[in-house]
Amino acid sequence: MSPRAKGVLIASTGTVAWATTAIFIRYLLTHYTLTPFTLAFWRDLFLALSLLLVFRVARPDILRLKWRDLPFLVIYGGVILAFFNASWTVSVDLNGAAVSTVMAYCSPAFAVALERLILKEPFTWRKGVAAVLSLIGCAGVAKAYAPQVWRLNPLGIVIGVTSGLAFAIYSLAGRWSAKRYASPWTVMTYGFLFAACALSLTQRPDTIFSLGTHWDGWLILATLSLVPTLIGYGLFTVSLRYLPASVCTVIASMEPAFTAIFAIFILGEQLEPLQWLGAALILAAVLLAQSGAVDNPSQSDVRLPLDKPVANVDN
To answer: pLDDT per position in the chain (315 positions), as tens?
Structure first.
């Protein structure tokens, strides 16, 4: 399998897992007394502690760091990842799952622009068209064509679009780290740890344990952290070793299409014809983006020793 095909397969699998997160988040926020920031904090903390425990026993080399690694990991986790997780969760709470998904997946357009400015990766017509198609497709899947959907408060709109920008920045940071660290799990583990530390600053005694003795709620929250979040973020981070960030974010924009399909079977919802058309446009964007991925070491095939101990790769 070529590096490009491997990256597409990894990113697509992670996206399928990611597609269930909105269902978990919406359920927790509507059925339990959780604030969005509290949910984001526990989600990140559960995942970080689980990864630390597993790697401490099975692969302690993955947890080894040098002092020079800390500034990037603190910014990556404590600022970028924490901000993305918090803004996405707040957006779901303020806007509902449909509109928040549309606004979060304006990220491919941001990624295409930032990728060119920051990482100096080439802009191609395929990337541009794919970003536009993904935006239109997401709007269709989430029924953004219905006027009543957009009757939102200004704060909801700002937070929703900001979550898309945050996801694009997170993708670019992950793309950069893929060229520097031998294992993506190093970046992910410490990223979520520092994100949890940052989000802990938003908590108060009356919010941090607001679930109380609702053990079913704790179980759902732990499942959210250890299944769709772990698989989704993990595989997305790995895929950035093989594909440019803009291509990975376009593939990730299949999430609302998968979410809609899951909703048919889990929640009994039905898709309208325009929603199916949106799903088709997202798929077309993915195929177009991956067909334009370039097979060279500087972009698609970052040849790093994935199974060797963690070490910095000199640029």
So the answer is: 788 888 889 988 988 888 888 788 888 988 898 999 999 999 999 999 999 999 999 999 999 988 888 999 999 999 999 999 999 899 888 877 666 766 776 676 677 777 777 766 677 777 778 778 877 877 777 677 777 766 665 777 788 888 888 888 888 887 788 777 778 889 989 999 999 999 999 999 889 999 999 999 999 999 999 899 889 888 887 888 888 776 787 787 777 777 777 777 776 667 678 878 877 887 777 667 666 544 343 443 333 333 333 333 333
One-letter identity of residue 211: L
Separation CA 6–CA 250 (nearest Å): 16
Interatomic CA distance for residues 133 and 30, integer angstroms = 32
Question: In 3-state terms, what secondary structure has residue 308?
Answer: coil
132: three-class secondary structure by DSSP: helix
Containing H/E element for 27?
Answer: helix 21-31
Answer yes or no: pTM beyond 0.90.
no
The closest alpha carbon to 234, from 176, 281, 191, belongs to 191
Burial 20-32 (b: 16+ CB within 10 A, else e): bbbbbbbebbeeb
Instruction: Give which of 170, 311, 229, 310 is closest to 48, Cα–Cα.
Output: 229
User: Shortest CA distance to 15 belongs to which of 101, 126, 113, 76?
Assistant: 101
DSSP 8-class letter at 182: S
Asked if 87 and 166 count as a contact pair (C-beta separation under 8 A), the reply is yes
Sign of the dihedral through C-alpha 133, 184, 177, 121 = negative
How far is residue 285's CA from residue 256's CA, in Å, rounded to a whole number? Answer: 14
Other C-beta atoms lying within 10 Å of the C-beta of residue 302:
18
CA dist list (Å): 168 to 63, 112, 249, 311: 26, 9, 7, 26
